[in-house]
Write a structure and sequence with these properties.
The protein is α+β, with helices and mostly antiparallel strands and about 170 residues long. The chain has one domain: Arc Repressor Mutant, subunit A, CATH 1.10.10.10. It is about 30% helix and about 15% strand. The strands form two sheets. A three-stranded antiparallel beta sheet has the order 1-3-2. Strands 5-4-6 form a three-stranded mixed beta sheet, with no helix packed on it. Strand 4 and strand 5 form a beta hairpin. The relative contact order is 0.11. The structure holds zinc ion (3 copies).
Length: about 170
């Protein structure tokens, strides 16, 4: 399928282009250069070739990219059934595991720019914790504090929550 996609855009389907596109389609979510190169079975492509390939695929609309808050670009391709993935949508980046997802049904708003300005790209990246990482609550001091078990015995006077603390062992109903 990658071959047909590449041909449909007038791109010669070299092995690296086919493999790159196939891996991105398979992943279904944006991958950094590093994560992507780790997915190649067999010989890993050199970074420069991979980078060029991604840029080529992007320029012909088969791949879109988004810059994470961690400074790494991530590349994504979706199945070409339907409209494909022009990339004009918001993304979410998990700061803990580094996973990014496409919020495909949430387009980036149009921006009004001064006359004569030329837009090369737009980004809207929300970042935080994905479901899995949020549930783990391994890091994030605020969350840890909030989920810390209540102290045994009478409540401490230094409680700054503002809300009256209820006895933790209330009989149900
Ligand atoms: Zn995507
Ligand atoms: Zn995560
Ligand atoms: Zn996307």
């Amino acid at each position: 399928m990658p071959t047909a996609l590449l041909r449909s855009k007038g791109v010669r389907p070299t092995l690296l282009r086919r493999e790159t596109l196939a891996l991105l389609l398979e992943a279904g979510s944006p991958l950094s250069l590093k994560a992507l190169s780790g997915r190649f079975t067999g010989k890993q492509p050199d970074r420069v070739s991979l980078y060029r390939t991604l840029n080529l695929l992007e320029s012909c609309g088969l791949v879109h990219k988004a810059l994470g808050a961690d400074g790494a670009w991530r590349y994504c391709a979706h199945s070409s059934e339907g409209e494909g993935c022009p990339g004009n949508h918001a993304h979410f980046l998990c700061l803990k595991c580094g996973e990014m997802i496409c919020l495909k049904d949430q387009p980036i708003p149009n921006l009004e720019l001064p006359e004569g300005f030329v837009v090369h790209g737009k980004q809207l990246v929300a970042y935080g914790l994905c479901l899995r990482c949020a549930a783990g609550r391994v890091s994030g001091c605020e969350e840890e504090d909030a989920s810390a078990p209540p102290q045994e015995g009478p409540g401490r006077a230094g409680d700054e929550q503002g809300s009256p603390r209820r006895p933790s062992r209330r009989g149900s109903r």
